[in-house]
Amino acid sequence: MKIWIDGSGWNGRESKWIVVFEDGTIRRGSIPEERTNNQMEYEALINALKLADPGDEILTDSQLLVGHLKRGWRVKTQHLLPLFLKAKKLIEEKNIKLTWVPRRENLAGNLLESYEKV
């Protein structure tokens, strides 16, 4: 199954993430604390990984996630390291394919933007 993810950093009230499954299921979450966009991208990924079945494909427009987890980019900021390690472990355990897509093709990103306007 394909799964799209996105995250959004602090907007003054909360930080959000969203996961959209190919079957139409949507999972959303928020943290009432200040987080960066990159932290929330990782939160979206980790939540998707927890719900994913082995062999699923997760699609993201985050070049940082794909760079860290597929291309060997070094994690330079300490606040992302625990999230990276958790995501890496889940990807390996479940044999998940992580794929970068342009923003316009990220169903989760489009939905997250529409929820933020409400």
Summary keywords:
118 residues; alpha/beta; Nucleotidyltransferase, domain 5; five-stranded mixed sheet; 4 helices; 40% helix
Structure at a glance:
This protein has 118 residues and is α/β, with parallel strands linked by helices. It has helices at 37-51, 63-70, 81-94, 107-116, and strands at 2-8, 15-21, 26-31, 57-60, 97-100.
Uncertain regions: pLDDT < 50 for 5+ in a row? none
Placed side by side, the strands forming the largest sheet appear as: 3-2-1-4-5
Query: H/E order of the elements?
Result: EEEHEHHEH
Which class of secondary structure composition applies to the elements? alpha/beta
Overview of the structural elements:
- This protein is 40% helix and 24% strand.
- Strand 2 and strand 3 form a beta hairpin.
- It is globular and about 35 Å long.
- It has a 5-stranded mixed sheet, sandwiched between helices.
- The N and C termini lie far apart (29 Å).
- It is built from 4 helices and 5 strands, in the order E-E-E-H-E-H-H-E-H.
- It is α/β, with parallel strands linked by helices and 118 residues long.
- It has a single domain, classed as Ribonuclease H-like superfamily/Ribonuclease H (Nucleotidyltransferase, domain 5, 2-Layer Sandwich).
